[in-house]
Amino acid sequence: MNEPQLSSIHIDNDEEVPYLSQTSSFEQQRIQVCLEFQDVHFGVRQSKGLFNRKSINKEILKGVSGIVKPGQLLAIMGASGAGKTTLLNVLAGRMSSSGNYFASGSVRLNGEKREFSVFKKISAYVMQDDNMFAELTVEEQVTLSCLLRLPSSMSIEKKKQRVQEIIQEMGLSHVKNTMIGSETKRGVSGGERKRVSIATELVTNPSLLFLDEPTSGLDAFNARNVMQALLKLAQSGRTVITTIHQPRSDIFNMFDMLMLLSEGKVMYFGPAKDAVSYFTRIGYSCPEHYNPADFFLDTISRDGRSAEAEQESEKKIEYLWQCFEEQGKQFSLEPSEKELEKNDVQVYMKPSKSELNREKFANSYMFEFMLLAKRAFKLETREKASNIARIAQTLFFAVFLGLIWLNKGRNISYHDYDAIAGILFFLLINQSFISAFGTVFVLPLERTIVLRERASGMYRVSAYYLSKTLVELPRNALLCIVYILLLYWMVGLHATARDFFLSYVIVYLTILTAEGLASAVASSAPNPQVASAITPAFIVVSLLFGGFFLSSGQIPNYFIWLKYLSFFYYSYGSLLQVQFEDWRFYNGASCPADGVCTGSAVLQKLGPSLPLGGNIGLLITLLISFRVLTYGILRLRGPRFDQTL
Ligand SMILES: Nc1ncnc2c1ncn2[C@@H]1O[C@H](COP(=O)(O)OP(=O)(O)OP(=O)(O)O)[C@@H](O)[C@H]1O
């Protein structure tokens, strides 16, 4: 068993202090973090139109400052569009580095500019959408996160113990063996799903927790449970920052600190319990027995119902902002050295050299690969509906096509060779579409989950994609053999063991290539709708240049290159060769005038093709190229965050 080792950060007297526990006593090992942000401005540049190169700047955050200390729960509240999520993303260092925006100000951690290599390890971010696989149980989800994110130096037993601790801490013990589920699949309740999301992020025992609207979409009871869990996390010494839209009064009372944002400006920042008296002082009294959260939102929101109301509310927002600038800041902002000491916060935090050099991922490639392969296998075997649909489709088409071309291959006459060519091409089309569409609808959804996991640094994208690809191979192989067996027998194709085997391999490779093409398209599309709209175009072009509809001589010179990019061209060419190579037509019938009465004459007539080995080789080349392209796109479209603030 590996002995746990403590990684460390430096404090100013150069002592090393533990910051991420690798023992089971996580609570003792976590450092406390004070997050301070000063004068944060953030805006986006929006282009005026497709043909207009000028852009306009839209300022979203206009000088936001605040401080959150260990043990505190800060709620960022405001109307829709006030800038809550933007602020949370800036504070969490989650601004996409590809965005066209401008940002200024400072975000400091325990008084120092944050070092992102450390920040990533001591913080966690829970997104608004619970992007998790519906078919995993609660325990499986948390366990996978734990095994992948905690370092290899920590024993598996200790990691598993940590899983149980977190499940307990999040109040999920009673549902740990229940499937997570989704909107369309019954699983745990919405509130429990949100707590699973939080538990997934808690495995590294983060000191700092960011949450985007953790109660959105939940009923009052579940929202309260989630907030109670957050309060507990804060009370155990963590620094918790959450955006929230319209909390009930009992939830409002759980906040330690409150930030009210309106149009990117701070209307109030300070202890939540002092907010009502502050607003009374500046002329806005909250009616008795009224939910303060509702009152604040009504007061600080822009009223767009009429031009006058809008003008009025704009004036009010300006006034509230001026008031806060002049008098409200007494609540904030500078943490005194004394206060930091009182809170037992390390004042100066820098990563040691060894820390900076440490591996980006917690575990070895092989370990990641094995765990992800196990998950991919579970997901595949548990997706019952799609598996049944796939099996039914395969059986249906094999029998349906078999009945259409029944016995056509037996005692074939030279009139019938085009019928055989037809079925060979059609079976390729049929299998390609089925496999491509299976991918198109699944991959974009899966990608959002993978993006979240990668943003948390759980694993390498290559380990994910390779494991998924390999796990999916046997299912396709099985379905393909059933399909080919039935068709072969019903149509009466060339029945030597070699030809059967080669035909099977060619169709199987075609399925994998079509799936590869669909993966490349789907991984670049933003959602399944876009992916399903684009993918057929690629497949149809491949079809057109596949050799059945257009012979080489009919293709205009300027499109000839498309033939070489068409995977059908190689698979159809090789299937024809396998079937017609030494076929003799119709016993005893005399050869027609055009001399097409042998398999090789048919091949000649259908146009020149590469040798069988060349066709199969190029099909495999396309298959690998599409897969590598998918990997490249997944990698490029991975989460990259700006680290300037
Ligand atoms: N990348 C962007 N490009 C253009 N506008 C943006 C961008 N990001 C945010 N905005 C705009 O900035 C404003 C603040 O957005 P943000 O998502 O932070 O608001 P919010 O307070 O979290 O709203 P909600 O409660 O509805 O989620 C909105 O008007 C939004 O449309």
Describe what this molecule looks like in 3D.
It is found in: Membrane. InterPro entries: AAA+_ATPase (IPR003593), ABC2_TM (IPR013525), ABC_transporter-like_ATP-bd (IPR003439), ABC_transporter-like_CS (IPR017871), ABCG_dom (IPR043926), ABCG_transporters (IPR050352), P-loop_NTPase (IPR027417). GO terms for molecular function: ABC-type transporter activity; ATP binding; ATP hydrolysis activity. Residues 35-288 form the ABC transporter domain. The structure is a single chain. By secondary structure, the chain is of the alpha/beta class. It folds into two domains: 8-357, Rossmann fold (3-Layer(aba) Sandwich), CATH 3.40.50; 365-636, no CATH class. The chain is 52% helix and 13% strand. The chain has helices at residues 26-29, 84-91, 116-122, 138-149, 156-169, 190-202, 220-235, 249-252, 275-281, 292-300, 307-326, 337-342, 353-357, 365-382, 384-404, 417-455, 461-492, 497-524, 528-544, 560-565, 567-580, 599-606, 612-636; strands at 8-10, 16-18, 35-49, 52-68, 73-78, 101-109, 112-113, 123-126, 208-211, 239-244, 257-262, 265-271, 350-351. The strands form three sheets. It has a six-stranded mixed beta sheet with strand order 8-9-10-5-11-12, with helices on both faces. A hairpin with a 2-residue loop joins strand 6 (101-109) and strand 7 (112-113). The longest helix is centred in the last third of the chain and has 39 residues, at 417-455. The protein is elongated. Residues 44, 46, 58, 60, 78, 80-86, 99, 245 line the site of adenosine-5'-triphosphate (ATP).
